[in-house]
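Forwarding the complex inputs:
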Amino acid sequence: MPKQGIIKTILARHKKDKSRLIEIVRDVQSALGWVPPAAVAEIAEALNVSKVDVEGVATFYHFFSGAPAGRYAVYLNDNFVAGMKGRAEIAAAFEKEAKCRFGETTADGLIGLHATSCIGMNDQEPSAIINGVVFTKLTKAKVKQIVAAMKAGRDMARLVTTCGDGANQSKLVRAMVTNNIRKKGPVILAPFKPGEAIRRAVTWTPEDVIAEIKRSNLLGRGGAGFPTGLKWDFCVQSQADRHYVVCNADEGEPGTFKDRVILTEQAHLLFEGMAVAGYAVGAKEGILYLRAEYAYLKNHLEHVLEALRKKAIIGRNAGGKKGFIFDIEIKMGAGAYICGEESALLESAEGKRGEPRDRPPFPVTYGYLGYPTTVNNIETLCAAARILAKGAGWFKTLGTAKSAGTKLLSVSGDCRKPGVYEVEFGLSLQKLLEMVGGRDAQAVQVGGPSGTCVSRGQFERRIGFEDLPTGGSIIVIGPHRDMFDVVHNFMDFFIEESCGWCAPCRVGNSLLKRKLEKIMSGKGTIRDLSDLESWGRIIKTMSRCGLGQTSPNPILTTLQNFRHLYESKVRHDTDFVTEFDLKAAVHAASGVTGQKLTEAHHE
Amino acid sequence: MSKIKFTVDGKACIGTPGQTIMEAALANGVYIPALCRYEGLKPAGSCRICTVRVGGRPMAACTQPVSEGMAVENMSQELEDMRKALVEMLFVEGNHMCPTCEKSGNCELQALAYRYQMLVPRFPYQFPARSVEPTGGRLLFEYNRCIQCLRCVRSVKTKDGKAVFGPLGRSEKKKIGMDKELASKLSDKDAREAMDRCPVGALLKKEVGFVIPIGKRKFDKTPIGSDVGKTAS
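Prediction (whole assembly, two chains):
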């Protein structure tokens, strides 16, 4: 069988290393278009693990499939903003042209249509990834052209005739993606001369570098806002013969895409930030955990790394300091929102299912492969590099007392100017909406589904850790949208992305959604609203990680801020409306017996 | 060895470094309701029933290390109701038909439901379509009853250390996979232990289900948790 040869080659390429299981499965997926049981068995035997271990990984991630995904596998973004921008029409066009439904593959195995969670292109929806190539601003005409090209056996990359701006045009990227940088700020998007930060850092002691970061009040930009200097300090204080710096490049919160722009245009700033972190915590190795959706940037990033090695910014004698070695490896994800959670990310980087760990121990004491590890967000590391270059004092002049510096916002939805904005903390939503051309918004979703849905009356609220913390996702919701559709889409997202480890998150979110659907269908009562609240609280309190602890937020924050919408949807005259639908219940039986249900049966 | 002073619902307790809240509480004769936990296995924190509050923050007692001065809130009305909700979730997630189940009376999920006086779950039944996998050698896997406690995943290994069970998929579609080849090689004793460790009637050793009659089983005689504190000095 030719297949066996392929898998042997793949296994050899990865030296039969268990910690590279995701890379192995990824290569099998791309070579065969799926991960067949025979491949699972062969991998298991070669790695000397059980088949369920391999299958467990192969079934965890979006971009692996246990059935043929199609020689051309279309992954169409299905988040709410895609829906705003006409996703339904595009999906219908794909189904019509390919003659197959979403979730299926054509009989000849040529085309597979798949829905996927946010791919980081909210500013240019509807979008899809097809065989690793990103297609943005899809139209029905483009879909027709794409499917015709598939039938002609063409390479998807050749359909990219016009590239986006900046490095999207470089021959290593060649993507139709546009940066949409709308506002540059001084920390992340300002020009940066390679070496500015690390050359300065290495003239100090690591303790002084950490002290400088502490002085800057830099808080983690993922949204949780843990002080970066303190994290580095904890890491360096954990005694071990190795330390790691891991950069979390797995932005998966629906609506965020600012890391995409940093990776495209400011990767050198990021990598230098990693080198600074490496120097501070005593790490020789750094890992960039890159979300699978941004695989199209990998060659570009490798190229940037190579250039930095040549300039001795990373690598041997990094920053010009004799004896200081720091290099960076890129590890790919395979499609899982939960891997943005730092301990799940580490599990995934080790080649396992991306399931969060119990903490303590925290990654700073027990991280990658068990070694002390600092896991930092892309934007955090960029800010750290800039702080070393320009000083903590300068940094603190930006933003507010509790939230120093700037924040990149990924703005999408019902606004005229979607894109990336670098703003100082403390900006009010009102000012932001004026900037982005979304003044008539009825609501702003701050921080994605796991964040807060803010209503029109509260637009004086400010971006910052003291009021509205955010990883950067800002979705503007216009006055004509049905808020229930928004909430429903967000709940679908959490249900899909739950790792399923713990009961409240695995079971509870589906129950919440079902209750929401009851209300949406007009069968809800006041009692159902209090159920939503108390069930939401149970899931938040009892769940194991941040996903479950925030997953009821779309419902809870709209219940709080859009109470009138819920109140107008439910029945006030009764305490109970049955969900039982006789017609639906006997549908199958009526089909078999040929008996039609009459009105008499209803009574 | 140094001692750790802590309290559970105000009761003064003494723990040792390295213990979890659960271990320390049990050693002091304090019962914290739990389900996925199994003595001697690495805790999984998957059922979350042992959630307690410390300083207001919820945490799983089975995974959280005990520390000096902790004031653990255990039997508050709020936590007990949330625990009951988790038991109810597990009931509606699967298809649990106690009267015909081989494990009735020995089932920890059922015993917790009695403890919480669960009559009708507050959640609607999901009635999922699940299967029975009979080809695991001496074992059969009744998926209708699996609550994904991960006890089998954590404990059933072959002689050379390979996992016989492992989680597959994710989200609400996640299930526990069984390597049938490896399962069929398990010894009589291993199969028996696997069944006994399963808190529900999901993992069954063939032909022994009703050897002990219903009515004379563990929880038919004494409620779950009632043994805690009996042996503690």
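DSSP finds seven helices and ten strands in chain B.
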